[in-house]
Structures are given as structure tokens and as C-alpha cells.
Amino acid sequence: MDIQPYTSTETLAVGRPWLMSMLGIEANQTVTLDLTKFDENLHWTEASKYQPDRKLKSGIPLGKVTASGLFAPYNAVSNEVQTLTVTGGPTGGTFTITFDSQTTAAIAYNATAATVQTALEGLSNVNPGDVTVTGNAGGPWTLTWGGRYLGENVASPTTTESFTGGTSPDITIATTTAGGSAAPADGADVFAGFLFTEVAFHPGATKVAAPLMVHGQIDVAKLPVAFDPTDVPAGSNSQFVYKV
Predict the structure, then answer these.
(1) Which one, of 133, 102, 106, lies nearest residue 117 by Cα?
(2) How many CB atoms lie within 10 A of CB 193?
(3) pTM higher than 0.70, yes or no?
């Protein structure tokens, strides 16, 4: 009896849910990131006592800063950024958010950022990738608009509260960055590619080496930062196939 060995191979894109296929990964380039240009929550997660290094999320769109030669988050235009803050210390209840005449389902007063984002994405005028919500449970929540609203001066949402407890609880809304203005022409306004893997770095570090993906197939809706491939300026890397 002739028994032949059976082998199988499985490749997992760990930490890369935005990657549609492995096509193009052989074209990755090693670059150096300017860590001072990246934001907590939006671009990286904080260290813990069990994991001493911070971790940059894979899939961040990148551009190359001309003056330093380092890579930073791609920024062609200023995206609208708004902050929602719960005041008065409520101990219960819910609220809704109305954006462009569409109103979310009820959201708990102490909801996580992911819950707020899911509620907004449930609106008919907000698709996945149109807004990224960051912040702590219970707020403040930061809304960064992108996708179809990339670079637009987005109207501020409104809220309706049904809070309990606290002292005159309410939600205040502030626009921290007005969308629509052109970003500085510093090189980061030209799209270069995507951060291919999660990258760990120690708190206090200002630079880190990283793989830049310059060719491949991606799912835009699953990128960690809102990105609209139809809005990239002339001179940007166009060697990608997008699912939008």
C-alpha cells in the first residue's frame, strides 16, 4: 500500500480585514513613519501593562512629507471633525443623533464609540467609511467625516436627549475642524499607499520603520481611516483596485 502525505497551506490576513486579496504584497516598500503625525484612537491604540507597545492600525492611507522624507497619514483636504460631549453627569437614559434630516435609533447615555458609529451608519445617508467615531464610553465622542463627505464642510448634527439623573444633563456639539479647506501642500496631500501591517512602537518613539503597500486590492469600507479613492489628487498612487 502506497500512502502519500497530505499537506495543506492556509494564509490568514491577520489584522488586515480591509485587504481583499494578497495581490501586490510583493511590492511592499520599507518606509519610515513620522509618529508625531499620527493620532491616538484614530491611528493607534494605547499600550497596556500586558502589551507595553502602542500599535498602529493596518490600512492607514499614507503620504510622504517632502521636507523630512518621512511618511505620515495621507491628508489631501481637511475633513470635518466634530465632538459630542455629555454634560451634567446623567446616570441613565438615551439620546438620538439627527444628521441631514435622518435620525438614529436610541443610543445609551454611556455608549461606546463603536456603538455611536454603528448608529450613525444605520442612517440612509451614512455609509460605512463616511464617519469614524472615537472616544471613551460615555464620551466625549469625536466624529471624523470622510467617504462621501471627504473634505466637505459637513453640517453639524443635532441631538435629542432623554437622560435621567445628574444635573440638567445635555449634549454639547462643537466643530473642532471645519471641512473643505485644502491641506498644506507638504507631500502628505499626495496618496502614496497603505500601511500593510499593524506596527508596534514604544511610547516616546518619534519614528518607526513600516511596510508601505503600493499595489493591491482593498475594501474601502473596512479601512481604519475614511478614504475616498475618487478624490485623490493628480500624482497619487493609482495602482489599487477598490471595492466601495
Answers:
(1) 133
(2) 26
(3) no
